[in-house]
């Protein structure tokens, strides 16, 4: 399959790219820098230009999306907007605009905070929950399949986020990458694949 992978240079994206290429898929990579195609998914015009440049694909896989981590009392209105723009509207827009280009499936990224809240993670929980609700809803209207991958913290990210995820059992990022394979090569839609 020809697969557009957004966020391909990150911890998760690199693993998804590796797993998809091992399975003989053609992977077109996208991110703000260092990929086949430059895109800023917080900018709808940039997403439009990306799809125009890449053209038709069988699947879109998103491994991008950022949210602010702040104590609730320090959250500003703009931080909430930034989180929704960075992880929710950005990925919804990948689906909304991608509907004209994608034959098979969309796979979005969410995360464990949708079901396991942590201090400083209110916006992450909000964003992840929104994406999970979105894929369930989009699946009943879209001709393409649409799923989300919802991992716990990766072993490879413990150095960065480990202090927040006390008592959580990390999983190798490759487990999350394999959930993308399940979404892309499988037949289900409206699913949230929990990893860890
Ligand atoms: N790390 C974990 O343990 C973990 C666990 C569960 C869920 N997640 C979720 O998985 C996703 C990826 O996490 P990660 O740890 O792999 O992050 P990461 O290493 O920071 O990688 C993020 C990727 O997305 C790209 N990106 C960021 N902002 C973008 C934008 N506005 N437009 C286009 N591309 C953008 C980055 O490249 P550029 O900067 O060049 O654009 C990079 O390729 C996040 O949504 C995160 O919440 C992570």
Which tags fit this structure?
alpha/beta; Rossmann fold; seven-stranded parallel β-sheet; binds NADP nicotinamide-adenine-dinucleotide phosphate
List the helices and strands and how they pair.
Elements lengths: L1 E5 L4 H12 L3 E6 L5 E2 L5 H11 L2 E6 L14 H22 L3 E8 L12 H18 L5 E7 L6 H4 L11 H13 L6 E4 L1
Parallel strand pairs: 1-2, 1-4, 2-3, 4-5, 5-6, 6-7
Helix pairs in contact: 1-6, 2-3, 3-4
Description:
The chain has one domain: NAD(P)-binding Rossmann-like Domain (Rossmann fold, 3-Layer(aba) Sandwich), CATH 3.40.50.720. Helices cover 41% and strands 19% of the residues. The chain contains 6 helices and 7 strands; from the N terminus they run βαββαβαβαβααβ. A 7-stranded parallel beta sheet has the order 3-2-1-4-5-6-7, sandwiched between helices. Helix 1 crosses helix 6 (173-185), helix 2 (44-54) runs parallel beside helix 3 (77-98) and helix 3 runs parallel beside helix 4 (122-139). It is globular, with a radius of gyration of 16 Å. It starts with a strand and ends with a strand. The model has no long low-confidence stretch (mean pLDDT 98). Residues 7-13, 31-34, 39-42, 63-66, 87, 109, 111, 151, 153-154, 157, 161 line the site of NADP nicotinamide-adenine-dinucleotide phosphate.
């Amino acid at each position: 399959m020809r697969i557009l992978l957004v966020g391909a240079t990150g911890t998760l994206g690199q693993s998804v790219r590796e797993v998809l290429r091992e399975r003989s898929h053609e992977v077109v990579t996208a991110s703000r820098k260092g990929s086949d195609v430059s895109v800023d998914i917080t900018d709808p015009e940039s997403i439009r230009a990306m799809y125009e440049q890449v053209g038709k694909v069988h699947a879109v896989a998103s491994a991008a999306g950022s949210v602010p981590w702040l104590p609730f009392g320090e959250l500003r209105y703009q931080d909430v907007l930034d989180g929704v723009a960075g992880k929710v509207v950005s990925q919804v827009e990948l689906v909304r605009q991608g509907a004209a280009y994608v034959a098979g499936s969309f796979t979005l990224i969410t995360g464990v905070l949708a079901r396991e809240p942590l201090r400083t993670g209110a916006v992450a929980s909000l964003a992840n929950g929104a994406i999970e609700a979105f894929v369930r809803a989009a699946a009943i209207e879209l001709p393409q399949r649409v799923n989300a991958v919802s991992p716990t913290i990766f072993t490879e990210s413990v150095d960065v986020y480990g202090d927040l995820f006390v008592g959580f059992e990390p999983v190798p990022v490759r487990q999350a990458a394999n959930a993308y394979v399940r979404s892309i090569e499988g037949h289900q839609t409206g699913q949230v694949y929990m990893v860890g």
